[in-house]
UniProtKB/TrEMBL annotation:
Cellular component, GO annotation: cytoplasm
UniProt-annotated stretches for the region Disordered: 1-24
Domain RH1: 11-99
Pfam families for this protein: RH1
Basic and acidic residues compositional bias, start-end: 1-11
GO BP of this protein: vesicle-mediated transport
Molecular function terms from GO: JUN kinase binding; kinesin binding; MAP-kinase scaffold activity; signaling receptor complex adaptor activity
Protein name: RH1 domain-containing protein
Highest taxon above the source species: Eukaryota
Source species taxonomy: Eukaryota, Metazoa, Spiralia, Gnathifera, Rotifera
Gene3D superfamilies reported in the protein's UniProt record: 1.20.58.1770
Compositionally biased tracts (Polar residues): 12-24
């Protein structure tokens, strides 16, 4: 075990931002699970102290990654919306220009 107070579910859950209870993306959840398994292996070989300072860094990194993935998705949606608006405005311009 990584720490008697921290299991895989808690590692994954702890990366959910406290101000929003939005579930983590599937990508980040998978990464958190893989990190947890690797940390278990390291602890088994070198003891709990070998990862105690790494844990907060990993959680912060996973949170940042999840935020970046969310921001990218929002940007993609905004870009698509702007492209549609641009196309509509261009069509309107073409119609008005022909009058």
């Amino acid at each position: 075990m990584v720490h008697s107070d921290l299991n895989e579910h808690e590692l994954i859950s702890s990366t959910i931002s406290e101000d929003s209870q939005t579930p983590l993306s599937e990508t980040v959840t998978t990464l958190a699970s893989n990190v947890y398994k690797e940390l278990e292996r390291i602890i088994k070989n070198f003891g709990e102290n070998s990862v105690k300072d790494l844990m907060p860094v990993m959680i912060s990194t996973l949170e940042s990654l999840d935020t970046a993935l969310h921001d990218r998705e929002v940007s993609k949606l905004e870009t698509e919306s702007l492209k549609e608006q641009n196309e509509q405005l261009f069509q309107q311009y073409e119609r008005e220009k022909s009058f």
